[in-house]
Amino acid sequence: LGIFMQGALFDRFDDRAALAGVVASIAAVLAISWGLRLFWPWFVPIGFVVSLLTGAALNLVLKKARGSTPG
Question: Residues with Cβ < 8 Å from 60, sequence gap 6 or more?
Answer without folding.
Answer: 70
